[in-house]
Design a protein that fits this description.
Blueprint (H helix, E strand, L loop, with lengths): L1 H8 L3 H8 L2 H6 L9 H13 L3 E6 L7 H20 L4 E5 L10 H17 L4 E3 L7 H14 L3 E6 L5 H10 L4 E4 L14 H15 L6 E4 L3 H13 L7 E6 L4 H9 L4 E7 L4 H10 L1 H13 L1
Parallel strand pairs: 1-2, 1-8, 2-3, 3-4, 4-5, 5-6, 6-7, 7-8
Bound molecules: flavin-adenine dinucleotide.
The site of flavin-adenine dinucleotide (FAD) has 24 residues, from β4, β5, β7 and α12.
């Protein structure tokens, strides 16, 4: 109920304006967002590298309504790759297709993605296309496959809560695509997605078992200790090396688990978001864990 309300609020422009223009809430966003500038993101990236973790950098933003905004986002991603290389950081990039104009035109969006993937390839790096709400899934999978045919430096995300994900995994693997597996962060109807945590978890484990032995390097993105333990157990049973996959977690979430995995010799990549458009991302993080709302309310009234 609370999750549904928060996810619905994440679409509200009025609430977004109130939250993002308030000094207290802006400060609180720093729990999940590395800052509003690329310099701040670079700092967070360096600190994560020093702690033994790789990073994927995301300049927050989604659902742009003009081609100029989409091109601006493309330029930002090109700059991020330049900075990562110049500053010798262990990092790649994640971006959302609706930030690159998917709502405006698939062809236009694809052109921008291709130019970012080319920059990634020039630096021997990697571009991950985040997965958004289910109305975008088909277009996203198809676009990733087309771009990959020209630039293998691009990969996809699969959400375990969608019924369709198993067939998407099989399809994408047949293209040699690297996949990030996550549970899924959006409010989806029961026509397309499992609603119960137990069902999502069962599908997560099923998909993890399809991904790990595939011979491609995938990301297992979760903070769920049970999903992590099952991945570790199953990889050991199948003699899959710790170097053949990575765990991925979000900036500001379960740092204890991040450190534990690094200590145990697993590869860990941190998703580090930054930028001024942090509202929708922040709301999804609140929605994932009721205790986060308590943290938000307590800090707001403590100001
Ligand atoms: C690297 C990365 C990339 C992602 N990319 C995408 C994407 O492209 N598309 C998409 O739809 N989703 C994405 N997600 C979000 C994902 O789908 C889930 O919504 C999110 O990770 C919570 O699920 P969980 O696997 O951690 O398990 P859950 O069952 O939700 O949580 C398990 C435990 O993790 C901890 N936890 C989880 N979330 C939080 C939080 N916000 N704050 C504090 N503690 C928390 C709690 O201890 C909780 O009990 C991504 C997640 C990660 C880690």
């Amino acid at each position: 109920m609370l999750r549904a309300t928060l996810l619905k609020l994440s679409d509200s422009k009025g609430f977004a304006h109130w939250v993002t223009s308030n000094d207290t809430t802006r400060r609180m966003s720093h729990r999940f967002v590395a800052g509003e500038t690329l310099d701040e993101a670079m700092e967070a990236c360096r600190a994560s590298n020093d702690a033994g973790m790789a990073v994927t950098l995301d300049c927050l933003g989604e659902n742009v309504s003009t081609t100029a905004d989409a091109q601006k986002a493309r330029d930002t991603y090109l700059e991020i790759f330049d900075r990562i290389t110049k500053e010798k950081l262990s990092a790649n990039v994640s971006c959302k297709l609706t930030q690159l104009g998917l709502d405006l035109s698939v062809e236009f969006c694809e052109g921008l993605v291709l130019s970012i993937a080319e920059r990634a390839a020039a630096y021997d790096s990697f571009l991950r296309i985040d997965m958004e709400g289910s109305v975008y899934t088909q277009r996203t999978v198809e676009l990733v496959k087309r771009v990959r045919a020209q630039m293998p430096s691009v990969g996809a995300v699969i959400q375990a809560y969608l019924y369709r994900s198993e067939s998407d995994v099989v399809d994408l693997l047949s293209y040699g695509c690297r996949i990030r597996l996550c549970k899924g962060a959006y409010k989806e109807p029961q026509e397309v997605a499992y609603q119960r945590k137990s069902e999502v978890d069962a599908n997560f484990v099923k998909l993890m078992r399809l991904l790990l032995p595939s011979g491609f390097y995938h990301g297992i993105a979760t903070h769920d200790p049970r999903m992590i333990a099952e991945t570790i157990r199953w990889a050991a049973e199948k003699k899959i090396s710790k170097d053949d996959f990575e765990f991925q977690m979000l900036y500001g979430v379960r740092s204890d688990l991040q450190r534990m995995l690094v200590r145990d010799g697993y590869r860990v990549r941190l998703y580090v978001p930054y930028g001024q458009e942090w509202f929708a991302y922040f709301m999804r993080r609140l929605a994932e864990r009721p205790a986060n709302v308590g943290f938000f309310v307590r800090n707001f009234f403590r100001k």
